[in-house]
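Q: Hi! First time doing this. I have a protein sequence and I read that you can turn it into a structure. Is that right? Here it is:
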Amino acid sequence: MNYDIAEPALAEAGARRIAWAGRRMQVLATIRERFEKEKPLDGTVVAACLHVTAETANLMLALRDGGAEPILCASNPLSTQDDVAAALVAEGISVFAIRGIDNDGYYKHINAALDHAPAITMDDGADLATLLHTERRDLEVIGSTEETTTGVIRLRAMAADGTLRVPVVAVNDSATKHLFDNRYGTGQSVMDGLLRASNILIAGQNVVVIGYGDCGRGVADRADGLGAHVIVVEVDPVRALSAAMDGYRVLTAADAARAGDVFVTVTGNKHVLRQEHFDVMKDGVLLANAGHFDVEIDLPSLRSAAVERRQVRDNLEEFEMSDGRRILLAAEGRLVNLGAAEGHPADVMDMSFSNQALAAEHLKKNEGKLEIAIHTLPPEIDDEVASIKLQSLGGGLETLTQSQRDYLSGWQEGT
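A: Yes, that's right. Below is the predicted 3D structure, encoded as structure tokens:
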């Protein structure tokens, strides 16, 4: 085993954090129990480029108990919990992750994970997959999994231009991932990150949410619940109309830039906030990004326009413009929910990482049988994950009577 982490002495604190998260991850615990008995991943090296959090640690332990050799590196320089990394190393798992590492170190860690010649890769943003298709084409893998909307967009682009060379399971497209993690997880954790970074009162603020996919919708819902006046910016007419019918103002970015007090980018695209917007923003606005990469806010333009920069709180930087206006940036423009807080609650990551574990099993079971394409997990896996989660929440699932099944499968019976 080899590794590169910040401080091995943090292992005990990390173990406590992992155990606490595990108590809220009943679905993954059920899968882990089966994995321990069946060993479906026996002898399989799995390289995972994910946020190094307590929830991710529970996934790594489940893979290990399923017979795999998991290797973990960070998918974002600010998302690593150093105590969790130490605890996993103490468990015998190779980890390459240090919070706050620079760009060169970040890619050095990704390459270190790939140096273990994985049979399966797991991604949060498609950085492992991208290297497999560029600098590390010497490696042959059974397949990959992808956790995020941003990563799936990149992988679909690979498939569209004919460069995809491995089958990929788009875990993000599972209903028990994007309908829950993206909406409820992102919504709550983004508000958590904003509040930890700034401690501002959300009620009464004009909160601009740029992007109204599942993640943006979750952010808008939670901001609305805290008393904000929500403004949505969208390029998709159907999503824009949906936001309007959900009760939010829908404006162009140019108009929203003048009105907003707090801005959250959730698009998966680059420079959705740029110089033309910075020029008309109010004094004291707060900018935050909830997309995977730190490109949604045009940071080079913001930095070059500032006459002075100062750190005003942990994870909060102030940029003073030439006219005296101040623009605040949370978590360096990186994922605010992980850069300034702890990411999604374990309760919702339970489903996402259960899908990741089952996706790895699916790839192993179907080795050599899947075409090179973007795949989704079979719907029965979604149903299994949802049923276990509902049961853990104290819910009960209704069953159809034989008469009802006959009615739904027939056509003769009408009015």
